[in-house]
Amino acid sequence: FPGEPSPSETDIIQVSIRLPANEPIRRRFRRTDSAKLLFEFAWTNPNVPDQFELLWGYPRR
């Protein structure tokens, strides 16, 4: 799994994933990183269920 980009890098985004227990996990990604990397990051957390969806857009409409 690639390392997290430093805060001083350009073209990075901060992603927050809210877990079922309402606990957020956060990480910086490069704008060029794939969605697959987001899923792989989520799976590294032991509190993420075996099956899940990643939704974007806040607030949800």
Automatic annotation (TrEMBL):
InterPro entries: Ubiquitin-like_domsf, UBX_dom. Gene3D superfamilies: Phosphatidylinositol 3-kinase Catalytic Subunit, Chain A, domain 1. Pfam families: UBX. Residues 8-61 form the UBX domain. The lineage of its organism: Eukaryota, Metazoa, Spiralia, Gnathifera, Rotifera. This is UBX domain-containing protein. It comes from Rotaria socialis.
